[in-house]
From TrEMBL:
Keywords, comma-separated and alphabetical: Kinase, Transferase
Domain Carbohydrate kinase FGGY C-terminal: 280-438
BP GO terms, sorted: carbohydrate metabolic process
PANTHER family recorded: SUGAR KINASE, XYLULOSE KINASE
Domain Carbohydrate kinase FGGY N-terminal, residue spans: 4-235
Annotated protein name in UniProt: Carbohydrate kinase
Lineage summary: Bacteria, Bacillati, Bacillota, Clostridia, Lachnospirales
Amino acid sequence: MDAIIGIDIGTTHMKAQLFDENGVVLGSRKEDTPLDPDGYGNVYRPERVWKIVRSQMESLLECRDIHVAGISITGMAEAGLIVDRRTGKERTAILPWFDGRTARLAGGMTEEREKEVFSKTGLRNSYKYGIYKFLWLLEETKMEKDDAVWLSMCDYIAWKLTGRLVTEPGFAARTYVYDIGRKRWDAGRIQEYGLNLSNFPEVVPSGSVVGTYLSADGRKIPVAIAGHDHICAAFALLHQEEEGICDSAGTSETYVGRLRLPVPGGCTGGSLKISMDTGLLYGPYVDGGYFFMANVPSSGHSVEWFRTKLQLSGLSYENMNQGLETLEMQPTGLLYFPFLTGMGSPLYEASARGTLIGLHEEMDGWTVLKGMMEGIQYQSAWLMEILRKEHGIQDSRILCAGGSVHNHVMMQLKADILKKNVIVPDMPEATLCGAAALFLQKNRGKEAAERFLQACLNKRETYMPDPERSEAYQRIWKERYLPMVDILVKLCKKGDVQNV
C-alpha cells in the first residue's frame, strides 16, 4: 500500500501526518512552532525548525511495511530567510510573516504605484511580503547579494530535504515581485530593488516532484512543495466544488475560491485582469488558474481575546460552548467590529480598532460573546456581497475547516447571517489533506486524489439558515453595521480615537 507524508509548517504548530492512499491517517505528529527573540522581535531559528521536521518525518517512517510514495509540504506564506548559494548554508533566521520590522521598507508607495503593482501581483502593498524581509536581512547581515537566495519557510524545508533551491507559484507570489499573469519573476521590479533573478529560487508547478529525500534507513522519497496552507485547504474542501467557497476559520478567517475568468474591468497582467478596487486579493491556484481571497484577521482571535483576556480567569472551550448554547438563537442587537488587529478585506486599514456598540446593563458575558461572533459574520457578509457584485459568485454553500468549526453556535450564526448552508466536512486537518491530495493528483492522476478525499468529503455536518433569523440579521447588517464601518474607519484615520 502506498502512503503520503504531509508536512504543515504553521504559525502556531508544526504538523506531519502519514496517510494511506485512501485518506486514512496512519500516524500523526505535532509540536509547537518554536519562536526565539532576536533583539527586534521574535524569529524562527532554521536549525530548530529543520530538526523538528526531520524528527517528525523519521518517526512516521518507522512504519516500514508501507511504501511512502511522497512528501508534500505546505505551510505559512511570507515567512522566510536567506541561504548562501555558494556555501549552501543558512545565513539568517526565518522572519515570521507577521513581523513588523520591515514596515519602513514597505512605506512610501503611492496609490497609483500600488495599483500598478497590484495588476501584476494580485496583492496590496504590505510589510509582510518576502521582498521586504529579504531587503531587511540583506541590510542587517551585509552579505554579498550575488550569493544570497530568498527562500520561504516551505521552500527552505524542500531545500533541506532535496538540496534544490525551488519554490511554487503561490509562495513566489507572496514575495510581491512575481507576475502572476505572466507566471514568472518580475525582473524589472526585482532590478529596482538592486537584485537580480539569481536571488530567487526556480519556480516549479505546485505539487510537482522537486527532488528526493534520503531517509535515515536509505529510502529515496519524492518531495513536492504543495503551496500556501489556506490554498491547500481550499483544494481539499473544494475538490468537488468547481465554484464553491472555502472558509478556513481559525485565528484569522480566510475565504478562498477559484476565480472565474476573465475578470471584468481592472488592469491587465498577462492574460489576467484584476482590479484593486474589489478589496480582494488574488493569486495562482495550486491546481492551475487563479484564486480570490478575502480575510477577517481577528475572527477566531476575537473569541480568544474574550476567552483569555476579557475574563477575570481563563474560560475553557467546553464551558464557553456550553454557555453560548444556553442563549436563544435571536439577534443580540450588539454591533461588534472585529478589528482588534486592524481591518483586512476589503479596506485593509491598519488603524481600524475593534469596537462594540449597543451594550446595556441586562446583558451578560455570554450575550456579549455571541454579539462579538455576530459581528465577525457581519464582516463576512460584506465580503460575500463583494464576491457577488464583482465576480458573480453567489454559491449557496460554504465549506468550513479550522478550529472554529467546533463552535456550533458560531457555525449556525454563519449560516443565518450569510444566508448560506454551512458545511463542515469530516476533515480535521484540511491543509494536510489538501497537500497530500495535490501530490497524488499531480503524480498519480485526478482519480487518485478523488479517492483519497472521497471519504472525508462525503461525511459532513450541515448548518442551514433559519429564514426568519436571516431576515432580521440582514436588516441589522444593512441598516446599522455597514453605515458604522465608514464612520469608525474615518475616526481612526484622523487619530481622533486611540481605542474606539
